[in-house]
Amino acid sequence: MFQGRLSKKLVFCIMLISGVFTLLSTSYTVYHDYRNRISALEQQVKDIVDSYEQPLGVAIYKSQTLIVTLILETFRGLSDEYLAAAKDSDGKNVMTVANIEQDEIMGKMNALGTRNNYFTYKKEIDFGLSKYVTNGEVVVIEGYVGSIEVTVSTEHVKREIIGNIKTILVAQFIKTLIVSLFILFLIDKLILSRQIRIVNWLREFSKNQSIDPLQLRKTIHPDELDDMTYVINDMGSKIVSHQKSLENTVNDRTRELVVKNTELENAQKELHLMLHSKSLALNHIEETLSTALWETDIFGNIISMSESLDKNVLRTDSGTNVLRLSEVVSLPRSKNKDSFDKVLKGIFDSREPFTIHDTEIKNSFGNRISIRLDGRPKIIDGAFTGYNGTITDISSEKKLRMLAYSDGLTGLANRLALEHHFEKTQQRAKRLNFSNGIMALDLDFFKSINDNYGHAVGDDVLKAVALSLSDCVREEDCVARIGGEEFVVLVQGVTLEGLITLAERINESVRSLRPSSLPIERKITVSIGLTIVALNEQLSDALKRADDFLYMSKKNGRDTVSYDSK
Length: 566
Fold this sequence. Notes:
membrane, alpha+beta, Beta-Lactamase, five-stranded mixed β-sheet, six-stranded antiparallel β-sheet, 4 domains
């Protein structure tokens, strides 16, 4: 009995439920008994006070402290802790009777943990206008004569209840245990033993599938388990029959698979030859176009790449065999504000086609190569499975673009680059409604440097000034060299005050330059003219106005800044 796992679970559940129910019912009974006893004690106090109200009022009125004391002593047998006090009409204490110090009982009543162990009953004694005969003497009492206040501890009631709980719990536990065991015996006899027999038969059947059927009970009133036994026997016979049929079918299919496998091997050989020829042709096309193919999963891990890219890319030692696209491609160091992982995450979250022009890869020699990265999402059966795309070498194109848009000596933007940058800046200013500023700068007395120290020294000075200007502006601003010693600074999103501050900082920076090829006493300065560009203004118009202010600076003694103060 109770050997199976289900039997043990039933024993646990029935005992747990019975125990919880017994505990709840016992708790309710005990609590109800406790409240009844407390209510009886409170009522007893009220009855005593009501019965002694008249004599107590007369005794208080006549200041008969002995009689007051005797009346208050009647509360002594109600509790092991009590306090009874009688006060006259002026609130003065006539008599207090207690079996515990008054301060002690008041402290317990105010304490958080024991305040509920006491109750207090107070009654005001008011006779109106009454006559009473006491010891043959007629006493006339008028109005309010005083009060009685009784405080009684209920701790003895709680102790009695706790003592009864133990007896009740033991009796309830024994009763619950007997009933639970009886119920479990019936469950085991009627259900569990038969269920275990069915399980054991099924285990044996799963091993050899040829054992005798389950034995049915001889009864005129079959229950659900008898029906289950019949169904299992019928199912077992059908399984044996189907298994024999399945074995014959498997043998036939095995012979067919052998034939199909031979045909598949021959087709696979032909496919390998075809794919090899296609791969050779694709590698030739990639080398000709300087383009490589790549493919990633949804997490940006490369799952395939062109052979040329696989051989030449510089791999990082990440400790795993997984190569991420962000390990192959990176942003240029000058623009690497965020990791390329963050850039790719935003792209992969959007699941849109993309083209990133200004990216780089490191080849196996550690050299950085400028590339264009193109990608298209892979959608299979409506589900996003990653990206595939191309990496195109644009280093030669980038070099040509740099030659076309940069000054050969200083590396700054040239006039063509300035025009392109001005056009983009103006479009952005119109869209965001802010102002741009432009400065025209000219090196003071530069011709005398070339004449006195040579053109090589003049070139060093121009390079130093170009570097100083670049250090003074932000990355989004543009510094250009448009002539021999003429420079232009285009500043985005700036007020006139901010433009003046920047010009003064440039003057200060240039004054501090000390190229090694130039004598230390030879100072370098620049004259500056500046203006705010109107939203619809052309570069030529804004530059002409800045040039006018530049010539004003030269007339005013050079090494200064001029602008329209209106």
